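Figure 3 (text version): structure tokens given as input.
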């Protein structure tokens, strides 16, 4: 039993990813049958082989101590809790305020004033377009690193006043930007950490905030759930939805009422997004590459193109018109993000799948090394990033997604004996 527990703790990142991969596999199977299972198992085999071999080769080579220089930096920072706390608060407030000042509009208010789901989708998309590169990066770091890390940091340091402020700021910011994933990103580390420490009441309280925020955003972005008419549907052959949970469906130029349960609609939409859509996106990418869109041979990596001078080709944007032709014909533009290994596949085919398995194995081992035996902190900090590998490139998560920055902050600011 002790060996099983030790194995589980030392390989938790890989095991969590395997659970995620299972759901991806199911999504691919339900959307395309057995067509792409060979490619998926090629990636899985490369990940497992590289992980096992590299872990055996590096066992005992590394030490969790980075040297006296890093230890002295940690000592200085950890003794300046008040200064660090104030810096986090100021950074978040400045980031949020300047972001909305730059946008010069409030997305949540605009969405609530619209009864057209396509217009609301455009409002949500335009947040990124209108923000520009600087504010997009700043917002990403704030949502995916600064706020979630601050919540965990203030909880561990028992600075509950600061914790309350960040809870309010984080909830407000995620709602205002109309993205359901943001509140999950913000709250995941502290929910997992408090749950692992058996602080079930506090973990439940934060979880309720997440659930209520997601429900609110689903209602805000769906006019029919607000008791109004969704004109995006009523002006077409699709079903216009209106009134108190009554949907009107066109049948041979007549209109018949159909009862719609709002709770079921919200639940089905969220469960579909979590359990089915990621696998379906993998199938869609496989079906289009290279049959209709050629392998990119490195042109899909922005960091490489900055060195070579090539123009980056972003298939997550280009494939939108293929996967959502109706929405595209209506003038909507968006992205179709997919699992991390598909970005490497889109560049190098099956060799890219092997490369992706290798890179992911190396990264898991690096994270294991950084956290050493800090199981609770390792799971709390990294689990959400593992889940995001179902819809993001690894390089995106590491840098603009804030994974690297989060690990740096954790290493220097949180003491092992505080956990």
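Below: residues designed for each position.
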């Amino acid at each position: 039993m002790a060996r099983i527990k030790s194995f589980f703790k030392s390989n938790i990142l890989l095991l969590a990813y395997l659970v995620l991969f299972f759901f991806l596999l199911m999504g691919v199977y339900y959307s395309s049958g057995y067509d792409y299972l060979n490619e998926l198992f090629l990636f899985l085999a490369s990940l497992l082989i590289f992980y096992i071999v590299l872990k055996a080769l590096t066992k005992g080579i590394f030490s969790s101590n980075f040297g006296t220089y890093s230890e002295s930096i940690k000592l200085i920072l950890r003794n300046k809790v008040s200064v660090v706390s104030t810096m986090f608060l100021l950074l978040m407030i400045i980031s949020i305020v300047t972001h909305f000042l730059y946008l010069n509009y409030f997305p949540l208010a605009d969405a609530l004033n619209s009864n057209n789901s396509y217009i609301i989708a455009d409002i949500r998309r335009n947040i990124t377009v209108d923000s520009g590169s600087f504010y997009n990066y700043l917002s990403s770091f704030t949502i995916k690193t600064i706020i979630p890390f601050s919540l965990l940091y203030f909880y561990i340091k028992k600075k509950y006043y600061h914790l309350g402020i960040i809870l309010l700021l984080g909830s407000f910011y995620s709602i205002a930007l109309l993205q359901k994933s943001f509140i999950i990103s913000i709250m995941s580390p502290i929910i997992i950490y408090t749950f692992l420490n058996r602080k079930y009441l506090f973990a439940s309280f934060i979880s309720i905030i997440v659930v209520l925020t997601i429900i609110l955003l689903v209602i805000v972005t769906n006019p029919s759930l607000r008791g109004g008419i969704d004109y995006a549907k009523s002006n077409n052959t699709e079903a216009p939805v209106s009134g108190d949970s009554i949907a009107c469906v066109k049948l041979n130029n007549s209109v018949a009422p159909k009862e719609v349960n709002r709770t079921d609609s919200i639940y089905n939409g969220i469960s579909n997004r979590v359990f089915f859509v990621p696998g379906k996106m993998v199938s869609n990418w496989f079906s289009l590459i290279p049959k209709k869109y050629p392998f990119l041979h490195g042109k899909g990596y922005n960091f490489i193109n900055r060195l070579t001078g090539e123009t980056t080709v972003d298939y997550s944007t280009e494939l939108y018109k293929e996967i959502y032709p109706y929405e595209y014909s209506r003038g909507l533009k968006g992205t179709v993000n997919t699992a991390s290994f598909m970005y490497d596949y889109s560049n190098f085919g099956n060799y890219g799948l092997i490369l992706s398995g290798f890179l992911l194995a190396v990264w898991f081992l690096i994270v294991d090394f950084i956290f050493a035996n800090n199981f609770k902190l390792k799971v709390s900090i990294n689990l959400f990033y593992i889940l995001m590998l179902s819809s993001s490139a690894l390089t995106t998560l590491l840098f603009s997604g804030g994974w690297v920055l989060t690990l740096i902050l954790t290493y220097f600011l949180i003491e092992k004996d505080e956990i």
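The chain is about 70% helix and 5% strand.
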